[in-house]
Design goal:
Number of strands: 22
Shape: globular
Distance between the termini: 57 Å
Structural class: alpha+beta
Low-confidence stretches: 206-216
Helix content: 25-40%
Largest sheet: 7 strands, mixed
Oligomer: single chain
């Protein structure tokens, strides 16, 4: 059968900046570029923005502090303020302000984009780049209008999997030294719970403003875990599989009494590539089967969960790591552990090396202690602007979890608030490149970029 030559409609309008992907980094990139005066279009494959935080239901925002001070500020502060004002965000008794309702966040992030002047095109998928040498002139997308080409001076790949960059020929890495990725998860929410009874049974892990319990953290197979005998019984009776006890974690959310958001189940080990459509589809199925097992377990074995019901599956699998571009600079584990700083830094991080590995029984390597400088309470390292500049394309930026980093380093910088900061920096840089440098992102003065970010509230 001959290949089909499908028609592509050229959209007559053009933009200064097009952001591919309205997820964790993409929203902040779009807001930042629009706030700087650029004409911005954000394309998104779902019908809502927020990516991992909303459509994958990854709550809360993981904490990233040095000496108790938040390292991600700027637009992240605006998000938290808006969330708190509408009752969809909260601060616990320890001062952690990272709790949020993912459904409320969908609306808040959308309003941030629109209020700052960006445009949104939902239900739209990246298909292919349009190139002239090393320059992107357009991006072919697919939606209800068929195949369409949209054009801009600068593009930002915030797809999370570097879809646009890879299609444009940017070299990339994926997985560890053997190509094995971090484990994926499919999150879900249970409602109809009596959290007071559940907490009385488990014992409080923490107290805070979320009623009545703000967090439970359960590692079932740890020695002394109160849940281990219950899980053993459930495995023996066929309610659970052995792997269901490897990672079992849940949180409550502001404004949603009687509910818990579960950071599980883990997807089976052979399905770990979030950029592989077959892995991704099978992961969605495997995750739902795991959720059914966990729902039965909770109803049968946990006080306060007898009348629990499934409130929501996350519509998007939680992918921790897939493709990582080769950029002008590649962040390394040594950069993190030695607390290296850079003159072109756009973000500071103190989140630990956090590898959810599929290689061993523990399935988690969380490096929080050691002799390296990074383990001091006042430590941080920086992420340079150059880590978002992909090799071989002159007018493209790649912020977020696909930025240029080694497998180990990516596990520390991939959390949502760092993606916020990288996205905000990429958006401002894209606007500056479009307005004063013909779209050339390497022509932007990184020192001036850093100063402008500081003036906008960034912790640099």
């Amino acid at each position: 059968m001959p290949a089909m030559n499908l028609p592509v409609t050229l959209v007559e309008r053009t933009w200064d900046v097009i952001v591919a992907g309205g997820g964790t980094a993409g929203v902040f990139a779009g807001v930042s570029a629009a706030r700087a005066g650029a004409r911005v279009l954000v394309t998104e494959s779902f019908g809502s923005v927020g990516g991992s935080g909303t459509n994958a239901q990854v709550t809360p925002l993981m904490r990233n502090v040095s000496s108790g001070v938040n390292l991600n500020r700027g637009l992240t502060d605006e998000l938290k303020r808006r969330m708190n004002e509408r009752g969809d965000g909260a601060t616990d008794a320890g001062g952690n302000d990272n709790w949020f309702n993912p459904e409320g966040m969908k609306y808040v992030l959308e309003r941030m984009l629109l209020d700052h002047g960006a445009e949104l095109l939902y239900h739209t998928h990246v298909v292919a780049p349009v190139m002239e040498g090393e320059r992107l002139t357009g991006m072919v997308v697919h939606n209800k209008g068929g195949l369409q080409e949209v054009r801009a001076s600068v593009f930002i790949d915030a797809t999370g999997d570097a879809d646009l960059a890879v299609a444009a020929g940017v070299p990339f890495l994926a997985g560890d030294e053997d190509g094995i990725h971090q484990a994926m998860s499919l999150r879900f929410t249970l409602a109809g719970l009596d959290l007071s009874r559940l907490n009385a049974f488990l014992g409080p892990v923490g107290q805070g403003s979320l009623d009545p319990v703000f967090i439970h953290f359960w590692m079932v197979w740890e020695k002394g875990s109160k849940l281990e005998p219950l899980f053993r019984q459930a495995v023996e009776e066929g309610t659970l599989e052995e792997r269901d006890g490897d990672y079992f974690q849940a949180f409550s959310m502001p404004g949603r009494p009687g509910e818990l958001s579960f950071n599980c189940p883990r997807i089976r080990a052979d399905l770990n590539d979030g950029a592989d459509p077959w892995h991704l589809s099978a992961a969605q199925i495997d995750g739902r089967e795991g959720i059914e097992r966990l729902l039965r377990f909770c109803r049968l074995h946990l006080p306060g969960c007898e009348t629990a019901y499934l409130a929501a599956y996350a519509p998007m699998v939680g992918v921790r790591e897939s493709r990582r571009i080769r950029g002008d600079y590649t962040l390394t584990l040594d950069d993190i552990l030695e607390c290296r700083t850079f003159p072109d830094a756009v973000c500071r991080n103190h989140y630990p090396v956090d590898i959810h590995t599929v290689r061993n029984r523990e399935r988690l390597q969380h490096t929080t202690t050691g002799d390296a400088p990074y383990f001091r309470k006042d430590a941080f390292h920086e992420i340079p602007y150059r880590a978002m500049l992909p090799v071989g394309v002159s007018n493209l930026l790649v912020p977020g979890r696909s930025a240029s980093a080694t497998f180990e380093a990516q596990s520390a910088i991939r959390v949502q608030q760092n993606c916020h900061s990288m996205g905000e920096a990429a958006g401002l840089a894209a606007a500056l490149a479009a307005q004063g440098h013909g779209g050339e992102v390497r022509a932007v003065d990184p020192l001036a970029l850093r100063e402008q970010l500081k003036g906008l509230g960034a912790n640099l």
